[in-house]
Amino acid sequence: MGNEANRRPLKVRDWGIIQSTARRLSRQNITPNHISVASIAFSAWAAFFLLKIPTADFFQLVLLALAVTFGVLGRALCNIFDGMVAVEGGKSTPSGELFNDIPDRISDTLMLVAAGYAVGGPWGEMLGWAAALMAMGTAYARTLGRSLGAPTDFQGPMAKTHRMVVIVVACLIAPFWYTALLAGLVVIIIGCALTIWNRVFAAYRYLERGPHV
């Protein structure tokens, strides 16, 4: 977490309010690992309200969509602040990479599997689990390439931030088009497959040709 080259490039880190909040967090008795673990709580919040969708009416769907959006936004902010507190705040730890990566895998699984159960039926559940496995595959392709000496690769088209956006958009559309969540999961699965291919091929090309070609 302390290596700038291993951080996901995000322009939002340059926002004044984000930087000032990160500085305040750095002055507190809070570690980057605490923030990383907190992202799981926000994802569990989102998953809880996703599971309420099958029995909701239109008005309830709107409220549930807002609740899910809050959870996803909370997770996204945790993903931003843990790295900023670690790097800019000088609080990186030797175990930081574990806490930077494992909570994301848990968070993805909670939200995507819950989205599948929100769709309902065997197809929905299957899509939810498939999306979670494919999301884990994108992380595996990134970490495997890096472990072999290739640069850390955060390219998409369905990286972590993109998956969160798809879930939020699908939830916001769901009150008006109930199959939006199903469509969102299909988009995530296809996008993750392309992402895995892009990352694996980029690592392969780098390792075969070398860094100076």
Explain what the structure shows.
With 213 residues, the protein is mostly helical. It has a single domain (4-209), classed as CDP-alcohol phosphotransferase transmembrane (TM) domain (Four Helix Bundle (Hemerythrin (Met), subunit A)), CATH 1.20.120.1760. The protein has helices spanning 16-27, 32-50, 58-87, 96-119, 121-147, 160-173, 180-209. Helix 2 runs parallel beside helix 4 (96-119), helix 3 runs antiparallel to helix 6 and helix 6 packs antiparallel against helix 7. It is globular. The two termini are 28 Å apart. The model has no long low-confidence stretch (mean pLDDT 91).
Set out the fold topology.
Blueprint: H1 16-27, H2 32-50, H3 58-87, H4 96-119, H5 121-147, H6 160-173, H7 180-209
Helix pairs in contact: 1-3, 2-3, 2-4, 3-4, 3-6, 4-5, 5-7, 6-7
